[in-house]
Write a structure and sequence with these properties.
The structure holds two protein chains of two kinds. Helix content of chain A is 80%, strand content 0%. Chain A is an all-alpha fold. The two termini of chain B are 32 Å apart. The model of chain B has no long low-confidence stretch (mean pLDDT 94). Classes of the chains: A mainly alpha, B alpha/beta. Chains A and B meet through α6 and α7 of A and α2, β6, α3 and α5 of B.
């Protein structure tokens, strides 16, 4: 082994790397939030028996869950580009991640909802609660605990998948790392540091999520 | 007073109640016995409008339960119900379980709701369980919690749907004792039950359901110990 590590250039470019990490976090958080909103609508559509909505939701979920993420990103960037709709790399990656997050979370939400026994609903109704109160106080809090950890996993997945932004020249952590290493030829150093940054980001997300869950969910299921 | 008048109820093609009539007076305890599928539980669900009906009427204190104009959520406040599956809210402590509905439905202050809830929990013998989560308790304790939770709404009537059927045998007694206590206090109760001893000793009247109709209705001791209808005789000889 005669590879000589040169870390100086990495440290000089630290502000750019940190900026890339920030973009990574930014796009993943946004993709998660939008994904959750759409997934709630899709889950309601799927549980509803009105055919057209159910059909749209099922198609969405099937495509999102059964095709590679890289395909979604290419479709959003090059595919739509060919049709004359030019998205920036950021928007293309964001749309692809939202599409996939929504697909997976739809099934998570639907499963979570269906795992609450319907007798919880009748018991609450028998106490005089309105339907909205039943959802607000009984169904949703129980559902949230059941889908909380799958949702955290989806968030971590989405942080890591945003690294595919490298393929369309997005300035997130991987894209930035790629650009900097090609200028300096310190490939190993840059990618090692980027890997550590990904690790720290996801660990921080997981730790805060678990602390939050302890605060949110005191009872047992 | 609860007045059930010629009630018919179907699930699709299956007619479960085929013209049931029964008046339950204030302070009275009526037990409903009968084989499974005879429509006993369905009647309770119809009384508090969880299920709709196809024909007939159910009148509670002069209010037509199934009329479109009736505010069913408001009506249910006076009809407490306890189910076979105790349905405690697993994400709340025992005290929160009992205080929730008084607070959000009756709009009591938090302190008032807690006071009412504590009183009812003590009433059913759960005075030492306020801060416990229901999943940590036995089925009998959870069923008593369900009773306290319903009582905290200060209902005028209590509907009990086979509340001991899902319990281990050694836990049945504590729940029946609670029901007995309520009956002694003068609560108006309709109990769907398989406990013939309870029906005989605690209720004023017993109705025997057979295939969606009341085949026999009479004074409790008489129906259980000396049934007149051959169907009742056959049923009771099997369950004893």
């Amino acid at each position: 082994m005669d590879y000589e590590f040169h870390w100086n250039v990495v440290f000089q470019n630290m502000p750019e790397l940190l900026n890339g990490a920030f973009v990574t976090l930014h796009v993943s958080v946004l993709a998660m939030l939008l994904g959750i909103v759409i997934a709630i609508l899709l889950a309601i559509a799927k549980m509803n028996n009105s055919k057209p909505y159910c059909y749209i939701a099922t198609t969405w979920v099937e495509i999102a869950r059964n095709t590679p993420a890289i395909f979604q990103i290419y479709m959003a960037y090059f595919g739509l580009g060919a049709l004359g709709i030019h998205l920036s790399p950021y928007v293309a990656v964001l749309s692809a991640l939202v599409f996939i997050n929504a697909g997976y979370l739809t099934e998570t939400f639907r499963g979570g909802f269906q795992s609450i026994p319907s007798t919880q609903y009748s018991a609450s109704k028998s106490l005089g609660m309105t339907s909205i109160q039943v959802y607000r106080y009984i169904i949703l809090p129980q559902m949230l605990r059941r889908i909380y950890h799958p949702m955290t996993n989806q968030f971590v997945w989405s942080i890591l998948m945003s690294s595919l932004g490298i393929l369309v020249g997005m300035g997130e952590l991987s894209g930035t790392t790629q650009r900097l290493q090609s200028l300096s030829f310190r490939t190993l150093e840059f990618f090692m540091v980027a890997a550590v940054m990904y690790f720290i980001i996801t660990k921080l997300v997981l730790i805060s999520s678990s602390l939050l869950s302890r605060k949110l969910f005191k009872g047992e299921i | 007073m609860i007045s059930i008048q010629n009630v018919h109820k179907s699930f699709g093609d299956l007619e479960v109640l085929k013209g049931v009539s029964l008046d339950v007076n204030d302070g009275e305890v009526v037990s409903i016995i009968g084989g499974s599928g005879s429509g006993k539980s369905t009647l309770l669900y119809c009384i508090n409008a969880i299920e709709n009906i196809q024909k007939g009427k159910i009148i509670v204190d002069g209010v037509d339960v199934h009329s479109k104009e009736t505010n069913k959520d408001k009506l249910r406040q006076k009809l407490g119900m306890v189910f076979q599956q105790w349905n405690s809210f697993p994400h709340m402590t025992v005290l929160e379980n009992a205080a929730l509905a008084p607070r959000i439905v009756k709009k009591m202050s938090k302190a008032e709701a807690i006071e009412v809830a504590k009183k009812e929990l003590v009433h059913v013998g759960l005075g030492d369980k306020f801060d416990v989560y229901p999943t940590k308790m036995s089925g009998g304790q959870q069923q008593r919690l369900a009773i306290a939770r319903a009582l905290a709404m200060k209902p005028d009537y209590m509907l009990f749907d086979e509340v001991t059927s899902a319990l281990d045998p050694e836990l049945v007694g504590e729940v029946l004792d609670t029901l007995r206590l309520l009956a002694d206090e003068g609560m108006t109760m309709i109990c769907v039950t398989h406990e013939m001893g309870f029906a005989r000793d605690v209720s004023d009247r017993v109705a025997y359901f057979h295939e969606g109709v009341i085949a026999e209705l009479g004074e409790a001791k008489q129906v259980i110990t000396d049934p007149q209808n051959p169907l009742t005789q056959k049923f009771l000889s099997k369950v004893r």
